[in-house]
Amino acid sequence: MAADPRPRFAAPDLRRFTADVLTTYGVPPEDAALGAEVLIDADLAGIESHGIAHLPWHPGYAPGFDRGIVNPAPAIAIVRDSPVAATWDADGGMGIIAGRKAMDAAIAKARATGIGMVAVRNGRHFGAAGYYAHLAAKQDMVGMAMCNVPPIANAAGGLERVFGTNPIAMAAPVEGSHAFLLDMATTAVAAGKLEIATRQGKPIPPGWAVDATGMSTPDPTILRQGGALLPLGSRLDTSSYKGYGLGLMVDILTGVLSGTGSGLFLDRAILAQGFWFAAWRIDAFRDPIEFKAEMRRMVDHIRATTPEPGVERVLIPGDPEAFARADREAHGIPLDGETIDLLGALGAKCGVPFPAPVG
Description:
- With about 350 residues, this protein is an alpha+beta fold.
- Among the domains are: about 75-180 and about 235-305, Ribosomal Protein S8, Chain: A, domain 1, CATH 3.30.1370.60; about 190-230, Hypothetical oxidoreductase yiak, domain 3 (Wheat Germ Agglutinin (Isolectin 2), domain 1), CATH 3.30.60.50.
- The chain contains ten helices and 13 strands.
- The strands form four sheets. The chain has a seven-stranded mixed β-sheet, sandwiched between helices. Strands 1-13 form a two-stranded antiparallel sheet. It has a two-stranded antiparallel sheet with strand order 6-7.
- A hairpin with a 2-residue loop joins strand 8 and strand 9.
- The longest helix is centred in the first third of the chain and has 19 residues, at about 95-115.
């Protein structure tokens, strides 16, 4: 990772830039700082498909403010509430802000009762799901986070879009180590991977996406041409019904349960999304020290297993993010040229200078 030739930028500089841009759109300063934290954390974790690159072009961010589909100062409402569960209405506000507040609320409920769950309706793009689940693991809890997305993936064996990337994240603490952190799309790949390939002028591998006729394609712009992502598993003979089923499960918890509605029927013009967050206090089930020790025993055993030819070592979910974070906190966050240009133009529009690279 340290050999990445792209210019690198200090995380604090990118957080400051992001927060300052958000405030020019009317986001309250405290919320702007929170949103910047969530967005830049994705870049620190190496999840560039959900980081600062979204700020200048994704409709959940600056363009959404311009179009009036993202509310910079929402009045988040508690629709239902109990000691262990709640439903919130995000009032069209930024998902990365409503999501952080909702996950904090789920953790607070878990701290008080042992378990906490918060569903959110009427949100916008909520960034990297793993960020929220990881918040619980930092509090010695098990955390989960999900959201639904307008349909961009075909059903298993089908030729029509019926569900979104609908990510699932789950995190758990590990003794003396970074957390176990699973953050996965229920499609074969997150749509952001196609965005990255487009920016870098690279083709996509077989099994990621198909054209309108169901034929595999290397074209990373295929979603704009009527194509679709494939479910996790890619094809029926390689178990795509599993990813398809998981995607619908997420749609039920985040869309149907929250009152947002299934992603199938959401208004694509405003890109509304539903979220679902959960936290479990480990000591409601067993001693947390014993739990974390058993987690350490498990992950150490798996990491010591034999890798297949051509693979350096076996990893645990959360390892790639931890490696990326260590590198990027020390050496800065790499950004490609197109992203730098777009951020520079956005900064000029907002009167916020884009920071210089480090080194």
